[in-house]
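To assess whether ligand presence alters the predicted conformation, the chain was also submitted together with zinc ion. Input:
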Amino acid sequence: MIDIHEDKKQSESWQEAKPEDALMNIKQLLMLAINGLDVCDDYCGSRERLGQENCFCVRANFPTQDHYFLYLELRAIAKKLAAFALTAELSKGTNNTTKEAKEPTKRKTNYEI
Ligand SMILES: [Zn+2]
């Protein structure tokens, strides 16, 4: 169980931390943006008191709050890209069906020549 005061203290220094003083692996940040961050399930005392953006599960993954906000922006882009890729994949499937339907016609033409 986390000490309430200690949790709040850690949260405050985390919020005040400057991103230029704390490095984060860009690959790690991108992987989180692609896969999403695992946050606390069910009830979380830290989230309850300090909010999701200050919860210890968030603080455990990002060196500063600015990194977390950057993650949120990248995550929104990643979701849009995933939706775009899915749409492209689905329309590709439709095109393949059309292509296959055209193929017998092509063969017929070759045979005739
Ligand atoms: Zn949490």
